[in-house]
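User: Can you predict the 3D structure for this chain?
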Amino acid sequence: MRGRVIHPWPLRLTHWLNAIAMVVMIGSGWQIYNASPLFDFTFPVTIGQWLGAAIAWHLAAMWLLVANGLVYLGWSLASGHYRKFFPIGPRELWRDFRAALGFRLKHETGVYNAVQKLLYAGVLLAGGVAVFSGLAIWKPVQLWFLCDLCGGYIGARYVHFLAMTGICLFILVHLLLVAMVPKVLPPMITGGRLP
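Assistant: Here is the predicted structure, written as structure tokens:
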């Protein structure tokens, strides 16, 4: 008899839809940023050839991300998948962090170590900050209280940029870890099976 599926289809579907939405959000966000840079640089690769197109792509991907996030949240709560991310104990985190720095962190298929749990918690926090600061930028008059929390409209742009940077760093680490442990990729496509 075959073992249980490592990554059930709702997890795989929402993962890949999320990946598409994030690429579009980041690429179009870079084009929006390029129209009025906050720093002394612009991004060479963007989505949307001009500001209006970038905003349209950004908003379309935003709605895909929201719908996909709600589906994932509903499935995770209904299936109990969310329990895999808790608890994150300080002793376990310190042990796994030291092992990760020495490239000795073991990877058990279908199990999240403390470093992974912390990274996922961090990207969810950065995502929440990106959503609230993005809403403040999108509707600064209607959602003035969000603007105020960010220190005004310009402050919301900086907060949004920093949250996006955190998400990009997570994606970079995520891709590097997949490259270092390539056996984790096929199950995210096929579902895989535990022995």
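The radius of gyration is 19 Å. The chain has a mean pLDDT of 92.
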